[in-house]
Amino acid sequence: MNMKRISISFVLAIIITMVGFYFLITYGYQQVDIQKLETDKSLTILGLEYFRFEPVEGAAARGVPNNFNMALVGMGMGILLFFFLEILSNRRSKGGANR
Fold first, then answer.
1. What distances in angstroms separate CA 50 from CA 9, 13, 20, 86, one per listed residue?
2. Sign of CA dihedral 99, 3, 83, 10
């Protein structure tokens, strides 16, 4: 077991998950007109709300993260990415040795 490879896969999975949520929230801000929002608007993954826009009287809507659901989905995505990166790394190392 190569601890360096596992550590790199673990860190990459966390970074990719964080960047993924960044782009999902940025996309949500692009889809919602926060100046004219009248009711709550939720962003969801698999039915779990990870971010919500709440209207504020006389001001732009504010974004409120749902930390529990975001952490839950992030852990699931991170675990899947970790195993995907490990399988990919394992295939690369075995494929390079057979050539």
1. 25, 19, 12, 27
2. negative
| Share in percent of the chain as helix, strand, coil (round to 5) | 60, 20, 15
pTM given for the model: 0.77
Q: CA 97: distance to chain centroid?
A: 34
List per-residue pLDDT tens for the chain, 99 residues long: 688 888 888 888 899 999 999 999 999 889 888 888 888 999 998 899 999 999 988 888 899 999 999 999 989 999 999 899 889 888 888 875 554
Distance CA 28, CA 49 (A): 12
Distance CA 39, CA 35 (A): 12
Q: Nearest-CA neighbor of 41 among 25, 59, 57? A: 25
